[in-house]
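We emphasize that the prediction below concerns an isolated chain of 135 residues; any contacts that depend on oligomerization or on bound cofactors are therefore not represented. The input was used exactly as deposited, without trimming of termini.
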Amino acid sequence: MKALKIFLIVLVVYVGVVVAFESLLGYLQPAGAGTMVVTTTDAGGTSYDRVVARLDSEGQLYVARNHWPRAWYDRALDNAEVQVTIDGESGDYLAVPVFGVEHDRVNAEHRLGIVFRMLTGFPTRYILRLDPRDP
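Result of the prediction step, given as a token string:
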């Protein structure tokens, strides 16, 4: 019974750490050299900006959903026409989900460390290719 109590306390603390970490990332939206802003639009036409990590692979631009909060990703799936801002330059893109060999290649090139995965609660990683739209 004591072991079960200890396990439950550790589990609750771990879940609390994951929730706190994910909440801080969502609130602070830290930006840096390897990030970009993805602007998605909901069904009502409201736009939302999200700072995300930029993934480059074989001349293509990608973004990954690495966290449990994923409203931006769901909106990109519902309306694939997104805007991307990198270093102050904005452009229109089409968000295309990738699977199979392409997903595995991009994922392997941009591995997530174990500490990051632990802090985010080991969410499943989904990847979108961002194809430039013609003006």
